[in-house]
């Protein structure tokens, strides 16, 4: 464990909790893509199946359980409890265009052709694009609530910190996982445009709105 | 033979 991975994990945790609290406190999931949240729940479920087969550390297990629990709670709030506030008309990204290619790629490019390993690979690839429905929704409505942008910022920060973590691990531990690294780079690139808007607008106290 | 990397990351 290095400082970049730890702060990356905590940043990820912050993102998840910010979103859950925002929805819970405002009793509204307006502006949030339910599809992205379902994809993230699928990501955590397929990746953390190793909770049942191997124990790594108390930290590792605790974080996995919290991530899974929070992601399902978020999905529950969006599609069940606060369904009336869900903005489905603007959440029109076709997720099958993500799931099908990502599933195919996981079968073709993986470390080991075993069910658990393929599901893990699937989750890595899927995570790299799971935010697209949310970004698509923002581009469609042309704006995002500031709290939603904080959520996205922490999610992107987590990816950037993980990239530094992998450089660190490569130099000091000789460890690298090509699948995770390539997917992580793709995922981080997807946030770049958003980061730019976040720094130039949100941090200067303006609302994030896109030109028409 | 493949060496499956340790899944210690989240």
TrEMBL record, chain A:
GO MF terms, alphabetically ordered: ER retention sequence binding
GO biological process, one term: protein retention in ER lumen
Protein localization: Cytoplasmic vesicle, COPI-coated vesicle membrane; Endoplasmic reticulum membrane; Golgi apparatus membrane
Keywords carried by this UniProt record: Cytoplasmic vesicle, Endoplasmic reticulum, ER-Golgi transport, Membrane, Protein transport, Receptor, Transmembrane, Transmembrane helix, Transport
Main location: membrane
Membrane topology: Multi-pass membrane protein
Transmembrane region(s): 65-82, 119-139, 151-172, 178-199
Listed GO CC annotations: COPI-coated vesicle membrane; endoplasmic reticulum membrane; Golgi membrane
Family to which the UniProt record says this protein belongs: Belongs to the ERD2 family.
Protein name (record): ER lumen protein-retaining receptor
